[in-house]
Specification:
- The chain is mainly α.
- It is 67% helix and 0% strand.
- It has four helices and no strands.
- α2 runs antiparallel to α3.
Length: 138
């Protein structure tokens, strides 16, 4: 029997096992960040444009990671790994920035105060994602 192009090995299935939990969390955070930023931009963009744009960027990053985990394969794994690292960097930079200069953020972002408004999940999620993606390489 020959292997078809649609057959995948367990390492290709990034969204299986513990990866399903990551897919769920990233999916929820995609919807949450996108909904929040869209409503905020429509209702009062002038109040805190930087915060609202950062929330929209967070939604895009979360959405791409969700897609990559569901898609699977080595290219998707590498792309998701890079995005998780970038997400962690953004959370740390924005989190520190919001603590150092609160006046720059009249309204919160998903990543404000290291994700405190979301139970610190935004700072923990990329770490768990990177651990899973590195493990899935084996």
């Amino acid at each position: 029997m020959t292997e078809s192009a649609t057959d995948t090995t367990p390492a290709d299935q990034l969204g299986s096992g513990p990866g399903r939990v990551l897919v769920w969390f990233y999916g929820v955070f995609t919807v949450a960040a996108a909904s929040r930023s869209i409503v905020q931009m429509i209702m009062d963009f002038g109040k805190a444009p930087l915060a609202y744009v950062l929330s929209a960027i967070a939604a895009c990053v979360y959405g791409f990671i969700t897609y990559s985990l569901v898609r699977g394969g080595e290219k998707a794994r590498r792309a998701a790994l890079v995005c998780c690292a970038a997400e962690l960097l953004f959370v740390l930079v924005v989190g520190t920035w919001t603590l150092a200069d609160a006046s720059a953020f009249p309204d919160a972002t998903v990543w404000s105060d290291y994700g405190m408004g979301y139970l610190f999940i935004p700072v923990v999620l990329p770490v768990l994602g990177m651990l899973w993606l590195r493990r899935a390489k084996r």
